[in-house]
Each structure stands twice: as C-alpha cells, then as structure tokens.
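Schema walk-through. Below, the input block comes first and the output block second. Nothing else is stored per chain. Lengths vary across the set, and this one has 1076 residues.
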Amino acid sequence: MSLPKISISRPIFITCVTIAIVVVGWAGYKSMPVDLFPDVSVPVVTVQTTYKGAGPSEIETLVSRPIEDEVSTISGIKRMTSKNMEGVSQVIVEFVSSVDSKYAEQQVRDKVNIAKPKLPDEVDDPVIKKFDPSDTPILMIALSSKGNIGDAALYDIADQMIKPRLEQVNNVGAIDILGGRKREIHVLLDRNKLKNREISVTQVAGQVGAMGQNIPSGKVNQGGKELVFRGLGEFRNTADVADTLVNLYGNEVPTRVSDLGVVKDTLEDEASRAFVNGEKAIFLQVYRQSGSNTVKVADDVIKQMEKIRPELEKMEGAPQIKLVTNASQKIKDNLYDVNETIIIAILLTVITVFFFLGSVRTTLITAVSLPVSLIGAFMLMKLAGFSLNIVSMLALTLAVGLLVDDAIVVVENIYRRMQLGENSLVAAEKGTTEIQMAVMAISLVVIAVFVPVGTMSGTIGQFLKQFGFTIVFSMIISWFVAMTIIPMLTAYFAGEGHGGHGGSHEDFKPTSIYDKTLGRLVRGFDRFQSMLERYYERLLRVTLRHPIMTIVATLMIFFLSIYTVTKVPGTFIPDDDSGEITVTLEMTPGTSLDGMQEVSNKIDKIMHADPAIDYTTMIVGNIYGESNKASFYVRMKDVKGRMKTEAFRDHLRQKFADFAFANPVVKKYDSTGGMAQQPFVMNIISPDPKDLESSATKLLDALKKDPRFKDVDSNYRPGKPEMQVELKPGAAKAYGINTSTMGAELRAQVEGMTPAKFREKGREYEVRVRLIENQRDLKQTFNDVYVPNVNRKLVRLKDVANGDLSSGPASIDRMDRGRYIQITAGLAQGVGVSTVIADVAKWTAEGGQTAFPSSVRYNFGGDAENQQELAGSTMMALGFAVMFIYLILASLYESFITPITIMVALPLALCGAFLGLYLANQMLSMFAIFGFFMLIGVAGKNGILLVDTTNQLMAEGKTRADALVQAGKTRLRPILMTSFALIAGTLPVAIGMNAASKTRTSMGVAIIGGMISSTILTLIVVPAVFTYVDRFRVWANKLGSKMTSATKEETSHEEATAGAPRESGVSDYAVTAPEK
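--- output ---
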C-alpha cells in the first residue's frame, strides 16, 4: 500500500505521526546550543615557551629551532610557523584537516618532550595547547574607579572578588585579566654591598626561594595513625623576607637580605595600561567552555554582573563595572534577523501560493508543509549534533521556498483532477500517486546537490556541513509531508477548487466581502495566468518550429553571463555593518610606555570628538612587553541613518593622516576572535635574508601606491636597540665564566627573578629579587658589573666580556623552518580579494614590476587562502552533485538519454545568478556560492515536471510536438508557482532587512536572478532540447531493434541448418559473393 493511500485511509494515524514530529522537533530546537558559526575542529597546536631576558635571535636559535626540528618530523603537517619575540617563543603547527586534533596535540607533546633536553635550563616548561573555537572571549568587562583607589587595590577587586564570582557561573571556561598592576614584593639589592660580601644576585634569589617554601618531610605510623612532617617556610610579612639568611660572612657573621638592600611592598612592573573612554581601567575577558551555549553563558554572566554592581558601589572609591564587548549580542542580532527573515519568507511564500491557488483553504493545506518541515528538521539537526547558528538557520531560510514545492505540485495535481470531475478522495489518491515519481525526483535532486556540500573536506567543509545537511533534513521531512499529510488534508478538507467557485469569470457575481476584495484580485491574477498560458503556447509552438535558433540564442546568453561573472569582485565573507572597528598603533621599537600613551591619548581624543562614536577602549602595550604598540576598540552609535562601518573606517583613516609615524591601521572588528585579520595576506619566504627583505620592501612600496590597498603593513620591523654582551673566549676560560651563568646573573640583575611567594590573608604575591633601579642600566654601569664564576667568586664583567650597543630585530618570524615576511592590507570599498591577488601574482612574476628572484617564493593567506580552498571544494561538490543528479534521474526514468534534457536546465540557472550579481554590484562570496548550490538543486525541477508530463502524454499516444505543448500548458502553473514561491521566500535575504543581514545579500540576489533565468529559459529551451534528444532516443531504439532483429534472424538460420550435411571443402567462415 502506497503512502498516499495509507494517509487517506488512516487520517488519525498520520495526524498523530505529524504531532509527534512537531513536538520532538520543537524539543530539539529548544535544547540546541546557540552560536554565531558552527564549531569547526581545526587541527592546530601551539607551543609557547618563555625564556625571560632572551632576545628574539636567542629565542629563535635556542628555543624555536630545536622545537621545530623535532616537530617537523610529524606526518600530516600543513604549515608550521613560529614567532620569536622578546622572552617568548610561539610555534604554531597547522595540520591537514583529516588529522584528528587530539592526535595532533599528543604528537606535538611527545616531540616537544624530546626537544626539552636541548633547551636552556632557565627556559620555562613549554605550554602546549590545541586550538579550540571556544578559546575566544565572549565578553569583555571593564573595571574602573573615579575615586582615590590604588592600582593594587583595584587589581585585587578584579582578581579576588569579581573573577571568582564570575567563574562560578555555569559553563564559564576561564577569565583573563588585562591591564592593572598586581601587588609584588621587591627585594632591591645594592651592587656595592653585594661586591663587598662576594654575593651575586642569583645567590640571594636562591636563598630567598629556599626559605620561602613549605617542604613535605615524610610520614610515619604512630599507633595505627599516620603522622605527616612538613617544614614551613612561607613569608608572612616583608620583615620575614628582609630577615632571610643569605650566608655566613667572615668569622661566621650572618649576612641577611636586609644587609644587602631593601624590601619594598610595591607593584609589579607595568607592561600595559587599559582605558575606557579615557579613564584607566582593568579588563576581564570571559571565555566559555567548549560546546556550551554562548548566548546563555553571556546572559548568565551579565546577570551576575548586575548582582556585583551594588556591592562595588558601596566600596571605597565606588568602583564601576561596565560591559565593553559582547559577542553574544552579534549572535542574537544575526539569529533575530534570520528568524525574522524566515517569518517574512513564509508569509510571502504563502501569499504567492494563495494567488496561484485562489483558495484560502487550499493555500492553508499547502502551507502546512512549511512549519511541519521546518520544525521536523530540528529533530534531525539535534540528532546530528548541530547548533543554531547563522549557517544552519540560513539553510532553513533558503529551504522555505523549497519546502512548499512538493506540496504545491501535489495539491495542484489533485486540484486539476477535481476540476475534471473526480471527488476529493479519489482525486487526492490518484493525483498524488500520479505525480509521486516527479515529486520524488524533485526531492532527490535537491538532496543529491546538498549531500556533497555537507561532505566537503577541509575546514571549509566542516563549516558547510551544517548548511548542506540542514537542507537535506528539511527536504526529507518535506517529501514525507507531501506524500502523507497533504493528500490527507486535501481529501477531507478541500473546497470547491480554484477560487472557490465554479463557472467562468464572466458569469461570476461577487456576493461576499472576500469576493469583493481578495477574490477580485485572485480572479484578476487567474485571468493573467490564462493569458500567460495562451502566449506561452504560441511561443512554445514557435520554439518547436525553430529549435536550433532557440538553443543558439540560449548559448549566447550563457556565455554572456560567464563574461559578466569575471567582472564580479570576489571575497570570502563580505564585511558586515556591525558598527565595531579595531584601530592599532605601532611606533618604533624602544618607544616607552609613556611615549606610546602620549600619542594614543591624542588618537583617542580625536575619536571621542566624533559624534558618530559611542565609546572606545584603549590598551597601551601588551602582555609581551611591546611598549611601542597600542590597540583600540571603537563602537559606533546605533542610530538610524548612521554612516556604514566600511565608510566610517575610511573616515577615520583620513582623520589619522597626521599620525603616519605611529602607523595607524583601521580594520574590522571580529567578535569571535577579538582582532580580525586583514583581507589581503601574503607570505614571502626565502632562505636569503637580503632577497627576502628587498623583495618585501619593493612589494610594500608598490602596494602603498595602489589606491585599492589600505593600511599596507608587514611583520618586518627595524632593529630594536639593545646592549649585546659577548664573552671573550680566552679571558672567560681563564676566569671560569660561561655564557649560562653570566646570562642568568645579568637577567637577575635587570629583569629580576621570582623565586618565592608572599602569602597574606589567603592571597599569593610574587617576591622579585633584583638590583635597585639606578643600577640596572648595563650601558651606564657596565664597568661596575660583576658576575659569578664556577666557584661563585665575583669577576668584573668588563674583564671577561665586551658590551656593544647595537640593534636586534623586534621579532623574528619563521614559516616551515625558514624566515618569512608577511604583508597585510585592507581593501577599498568594492574591491575583491580575488582581483588583487591575481594582479599581485603578475607583478611578482618574471618581468613584472616587482619581480621576485628565484630564491623567493610566496603564498597567500587569509581570505585568499579561504577562497582557494572554497573554490576547490565547490568544484568537487558541484561535480559530484551533477553526477548524482544524472544517476538519480537515469534510475527513475530507466533511461540514460532522458536525463540529458533535464540536465540542460542546470547551467541555465547560473546565467541569471551571474548577471544578478553583476547588475546588483554584489561580490562573489561564500554566501553567493550557497545560492549557486541552491539553484543547481531547484533548476532541474522545472525540467522534471515538463519531461515527466511529456513522457506520460506520449505514452498515451500523443505526438512529440502535441505532448510538449500540452505538457507546457499543464505544468506552467505549478512551475510558476514553485518558482515564484522560492523567489518570494528569498526576497527578504536579497533586500537585507538590517545591518546584520547585509553580508548575505549576495546569496539572495544570486538565487532570485538564477530562478528568473531558470524559469524562463527552462520553459523555452527544455522543449527545444527535448526535440533533438527524443529524436536521438528514437533513432537509438530503432538501431537497437534492427540489431536485435538481425541477431534473431541469424540465430534462426543457424538453428535451421545445423543438421544439414555440409558441402565438402566449404569452411564455416567462407564468404560468398552477393547475388546480383
């Protein structure tokens, strides 16, 4: 028994199944996690190693290279880069997408353990961490005070009060503190006193560390009980630190820390400063746990903030807490926009269907497929582990126009049979059964397109998985609804048919309010359809008389569209109009924190004076000790008619023209990661440092002169001034000095060592040991510096080493175990990444204006790399989709020839998509490619309806031409209905209802343009192509019949002569002359 027959004969059973689908689907919707984008598992592992006091060159040689040498032996590495900065090595290992991220992390951990013995003894243990998409802050909170409250007290409030309270919120992963200064106990030693007692700074630090710790001493059993011994040595006050015994001097006279210097209760050295609207502040960055709901975690943290706020107001200085950035708000805005788009799309689709069907009751029956299919899809999405994000919800938005297709085809065919006189029960069963092959073909074709999309490889494939399979899930539910619920409802609740009245329009007299209002519009639209059918019939007869001209004209249109798409700029994801901007400054290496703040304050003042800006945050310096850098977060006022974000970035660039010396860079803000990468990224690699620097410099100059590029920059920086101390080999050997002990002592004198903790009221603070401030400048005091030898005797540094003022690189960047320079740039409005990378590739080729020597190679990153990966994955997915469509159609029609006619419709949809993007001045982006896949999926359905009906009519005895004409007239209404339903459903996407939806406009434009071209050209071209394909089919069948007949005749002849005696000498293979 078929599904339609079951649904009509058992309506209560089908109703219960439908209710179960809706209830389970709604439960899945409410329990799904919410995020901006799908979670993407990227196999990237970072190794961060701290070696305090070491310069970038030492970090590269002593830390990064040994780690890189070991890690490079792991299989499956796509790229390995390292950044070598003052005191820090960061090695980033990126694996191909097929490598499991946990396996990658373990492999890197094993190799780093092998490399550890090769690293200097003073190096901290490497921190190994795999990349997690959730490792980006979802909230940034600012703590400030206008009252008289010290930095240490404000930091303690953030660290000891606010942070623990927020960490208690469910699913909060971690909280980082930026800015502010933590309390620290400083042991400041006098060089002269150290020399008099023959004591080094490292020796003092060692003794402070030995005295300032608790040491377990073992345990014993006493009467069946266990007694633990522990040696206590914690510092409870600064006097304990000052009283620490360093050694016994001379005649057993004790030397204590207080004899060598002073102990101060002070603050740690200032590495960065944070400000909100010009006021000094401390920032708390809140992270969520992996897999948790971003929106819920953010909302819960904000609720906790509101509980903390009154408590702060009662404290001394009345500290204030302010929410600065909220990544969940962007998620809410985008999901609200998508939900709004879905609702509007449903309404427009239903209105479109109503005008075609002309009956409120029939329209409502058709519209049932939308909520049931959409809510039912959530059930399958939940089982697949999907989240509610822009990609999955966008797929449902596009599916709105598709989901009603199956129902439209079924309802229209049932209605047609009712118009022929059948009652609703018979018409519902026979009408659905008659069209079920076409409905299955339509659904399977769409599924065949989106299964390859959902199974793409690489990072892009993980991103698109939820898009492809969400549409597949909704189409599965839609097909089930069309085969069960729709015929059941039509059988029992269908009215009189189209318009609700029988008879001609001329005889109809309006009697009700509906008849006088909407009914009049429907009847007018019905007359318009009748007129279209008449004109289409005439056009179709002309087409069938001149099929070759039709095909040639279509080919010309197709090649024109191919030409126009080459003029469409390409990008990966278009900029959104979020009103959020990032500004960075960078001055020459060696600029002090005070000097950097002075310039930053001027920039901040300019921005505060702009009426379009709501507020700014400013961070001067960073955790890496780069005091010559500053960054700003800029939030525009959310007012109607404000300047677009992209235009405002250009506006700011003009305002910063006088600060070119600070290298201001204005770029988009990325709420998922904090600092967005520029769209143009190029990596230049060479083993020859001179070729590398000269090639990068030439290209930088060329890019800065090109108006298409904005904020051109590179990671190459001039040398940072530094004092380089190098041992004299002979003298060092004679005095017993080695590089390790010398370097450790100099680092302890200047940077200091933190060998112990100071505990007070349950809180821990670092104890730092170093020289007093006026003795730390080695340049000024080089002749007075002493370092210990192997026997711990002090030796004057100038006797064993030379000190030269020189310059060293601020940072050294490496890629695949060689140095590289990365060039980045923003792009002017309307300029696509694909266009500029093609031009740059020409410039750097042999004979180009910035031709690179043979020793230099390059690759593109950022948007360009993503586009290249997307293009490769897209072509493969399209290839599989076309193949699957052909195989499905061949299987359904039991013919290898018939599908060719339907396949012709696929490229026709792209004609309008290409022209639409060009005329609407849209970019060829990832979202536009989403639209292309949608068009491939739906373009074939019009052809399926035409070909399927034509084959049925020809099977009934009609000629090819008559069958094509009648099929065109019969299927014009459902073809137009489904096409206009999809266009209506996509219209809100193309318009872009608000700022959040502007990035997706290109997708809507592509789909609408493609559906218009597909509908018009399919109705004309498919019949013309069918004429030639069917002729070929007939010829092939005749040829096959002749060959079969000849084989049968030969077989019969052989059987008849098998028993007759052969003439002597006649071979089985003798050739006789033909009769004359």
